[in-house]
């Protein structure tokens, strides 16, 4: 048995996806002559009603490029203390762009318009860094897949507008959010100046992320991507996987969410579980009882073929994805019940 719930990045391309990739027309993308990349970028831009898009190697790359385009060295980025751009991108905000951060506490990583407004520094006071960007994450990874209320996003947009600040979305799992909040992608994307989406998480492509924004922003992003060594040549061969994923694998995310709900319900019954963050999408974050050792539990499960990750003190994370079947979920529940 091998049930891998460590991340939704572990999915393998299906046969149909690989065939699609094999047949994709290719060209040199640094010359902007790769038809498949051009098609994917146009498809994604249209999907979110943005002017332009840029195919990149990873979500870290799209986020870091966006920060680099929006900010200058010495500027500050407002984000949650749990934001992927800060917590998981290797100090990239400082290293790549020379920027500092203003970290906000959030509800499962979701920050509020009030907190953003309170933390924007007075730009006329030379003591402070210039607040230059607000960044949100939806769904929120460290918040256990929590989804923003769209009205809260619109409120944050208003604060950005009155302070002349751009708003970036780390939408690595934005499709998981959109499946649940049922907001049309065009409407949802409107408050954001830039959006990063991942093709290799829930959507199941082997590689790739896309950065979205207006034409001028994407032109500048293309330059930064080249500087960061992200100019790829016949990369349509991987972009094809992303195009296939966008065309075929969005609606089925609902299934992953049902699987995650099922696991949440089962985990709640177990005596060795203290609590589970209410599941909203495909991420389950649970805390084990005080007298239990989370690493030992993870080890015991791994011996039985069930894999998941530690996620902070006494806590673990499970992520459902397209390679997890109904049977896997039943087997997983069976294994969890044998742990004491
Ligand atoms: C996975 C992830 C990213 C990007 O990760 P890469 O591994 O660089 O593609 C960005 N933001 C969030 C919230 C993520 O979960």
User: Ranges with pLDDT <50 over ≥5 residues?
Assistant: none
Distance between the termini: 20 Å
Alpha-beta classification: alpha/beta
- In terms of DSSP E residues, the strand content is 15-25%
Shape: globular
Cofactor: pyridoxal 5'-phosphate
Family: Belongs to the threonine aldolase family.
Protein name: Threonine aldolase
Organism: Brumimicrobium salinarum
Please provide a written account of the structure.
The chain is an alpha/beta fold and 340 residues long. It has two domains: 13-248, Aspartate Aminotransferase, domain 2; 252-338, Aspartate Aminotransferase, domain 1, CATH 3.90.1150.10. Helices cover 42% and strands 17% of the residues. It contains 14 helices and 13 strands. The chain has helices at residues 15-22, 35-48, 59-70, 84-87, 92-97, 113-119, 150-162, 174-181, 185-189, 215-227, 236-248, 253-269, 294-303, 326-338, and strands at 3-4, 52-56, 76-80, 100-104, 131-137, 167-171, 194-198, 209-213, 273-276, 283-288, 306-307, 309-310, 315-319. The strands form three sheets. Strands 2-8-7-6-5-3-4 form a seven-stranded mixed β-sheet, with helices on both faces. The protein has a four-stranded antiparallel β-sheet with strand order 9-10-13-12, with helices on one face. A hairpin with a 6-residue loop joins β9 and β10. α6 runs parallel beside α7. The protein is globular, with a radius of gyration of 20 Å. Pyridoxal-5'-phosphate binds next to α3. Residues 4-289 form the Aromatic amino acid beta-eliminating lyase/threonine aldolase domain. One of its GO terms (biological process) is glycine biosynthetic process. InterPro entries: ArAA_b-elim_lyase/Thr_aldolase, Low_specificity_L-TA-like, PyrdxlP-dep_Trfase, PyrdxlP-dep_Trfase_major, PyrdxlP-dep_Trfase_small. It comes from Brumimicrobium salinarum. Keywords: Lyase, Pyridoxal phosphate.
């Amino acid at each position: 048995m091998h049930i891998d719930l460590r991340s939704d990045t572990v999915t393998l391309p299906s046969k149909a996806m690989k065939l699609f990739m094999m047949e994709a027309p290719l060209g040199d993308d640094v010359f902007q002559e790769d038809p498949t990349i051009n098609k994917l970028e146009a498809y994604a831009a249209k999907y979110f009603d943005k002017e332009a898009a840029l195919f990149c190697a990873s979500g870290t790359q799209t986020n870091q490029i966006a920060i680099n385009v929006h900010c200058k060295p010495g500027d500050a980025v407002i984000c949650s203390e749990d934001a992927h751009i800060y917590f998981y991108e290797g100090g990239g905000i400082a290293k790549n762009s020379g920027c500092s951060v203003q970290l906000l506490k959030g509800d499962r990583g979701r920050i509020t318009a009030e907190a953003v407004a309170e933390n924007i520094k007075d730009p006329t006071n030379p003591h402070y860094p210039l607040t230059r960007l607000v960044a949100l994450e939806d769904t929120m990874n460290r918040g256990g897949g929590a989804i923003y209320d769209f009205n809260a996003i619109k409120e944050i947009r208003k604060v950005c507008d009155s302070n002349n600040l751009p708003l970036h979305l780390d939408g690595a799992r934005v499709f998981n959010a959109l499946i649940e909040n049922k907001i049309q992608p065009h409407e949802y994307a409107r408050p954001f100046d830039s959006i990063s989406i991942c093709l290799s998480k829930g959507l199941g492509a082997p590689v790739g992320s896309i950065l979205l924004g207006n034409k001028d922003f994407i032109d500048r992003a293309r330059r930064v991507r080249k500087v960061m060594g992200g100019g790829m040549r016949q990369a349509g061969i991987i972009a094809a996987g992303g195009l296939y994923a966008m065309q075929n694998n969005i609606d089925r995310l609902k299934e992953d969410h049902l699987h995650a709900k099922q696991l949440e319900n089962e985990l709640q019954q177990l005596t060795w579980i203290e609590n589970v963050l209410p599941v909203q999408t495909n991420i389950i974050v649970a805390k084990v009882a005080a007298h239990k050792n989370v690493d030992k539990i993870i080890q015991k499960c791994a011996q039985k073929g069930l894999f998941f990750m530690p996620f902070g003190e006494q806590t673990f994370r499970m992520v459902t994805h397209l390679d997890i079947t109904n049977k896997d979920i039943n087997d997983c529940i069976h294994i969890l019940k044998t742990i004491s």
